Amino acid sequence: MNFNQVKKLMERKKASKKGENGSALIMGGSEEFVGAVTLAGQGALRTGCDIVTIAAPEKVAWIVNRYSPDLITHKISGKTFTLKDAKEMVKHADRFDAVLVGNGITRKADRFCQHFVRKSQKLKVIDADALKSLSFKDFSNSIITPHETELEMMLVNSQKEFLLPKLRKSNAKEKADILQGNLRYFLQNNNVLLLKGATDIIISRNKVAFNRTGNQGMTKAGTGDVLAGLAIGFLAKTKDLFKSAVAAAYINGFVGDALLKKKKGYSFIASDIVEDLAKFQKISKSVTSTEKKKVAKKKVVQKKIAKKTVKKKVAKKKKR
Predict the structure, then answer these.
(1) pTM of the model as a whole
(2) Which helix (H) or strand (E) segment is 45 a member of?
(3) In angstroms, rounded to a whole number, what is the distance separating the alpha carbons of residues 251 and 228?
(4) pLDDT tens, 62-85?
(5) Burial group, residue 310, by CB count within 10 angstroms (0-12, 13-18, 19+)
(6) Which of 127, 128, 251, 275 is deepest in the core (most CB within 10 A)?
(7) What is the CA radius of gyration of the chain?
(8) Residue 295's pLDDT band (boundaries 50, 70, 90)?
């Protein structure tokens, strides 16, 4: 994935109408974690997705309304999502192009997550606590975004804990091979695994990608929520699971790298990534021009080396 490919995903027709560039539903949030679902929603909007609706417990939804006027909210009665809510939200989700579940939802909503993920056939992104009680057999039409610990929990839930010792010792390429070979049912059921780490690994049934953008500063709370938001925004717009996962990982890390240079250290936070996503095209232009200069310098150096080599050969011939 590169700048131009991400830009293409963000483009839209001149005559496009409201909603034609994607509508996303994000279900999550709790009294403890209001920021998670807000960051995810703002990340989704920054991809160019037209409409983002946050479904959250009533008190959480009102706070989201106050924090961002750009996000629509669907208010759920009570303090957490219930099984009854899950049955209603399976129907409600049909109004949207894609659905994100899990940001800030907590383990109190396990039954909600289990029912919704198993019953909904919509395009989905599943993140954070929504992953922890599920096995790989539960998913369809989904991008799942675990970090290492969440992946291990899911492997245990799937009776595949025998893979853990191998995975812990493996590099990124070896991990990808192990997971692609042992998660065939999951991958054949139209799912994509986005394993977050120093090198993000994105795996589909017949493709593997490695993303190396990002840095140590992105271990801060909220950066994963932004990533999930980017994934659902791209998915709602493109309907392509693999491209959306790769683009989300790439741009999230790319902006994080730009912030590391800008802040001259690890002081940046997740909301900085959301703010700088708006400047993505400007940042990418400056980086692209820098890369062109580097390429031009390399060519000049190569030409000089080639000229010196030719001169040496001519000199040797004259001596003979």
Answers:
(1) 0.87
(2) helix 34-46
(3) 12
(4) 999 999 999 999 999 999 999 999
(5) exposed
(6) 127
(7) 23
(8) very low
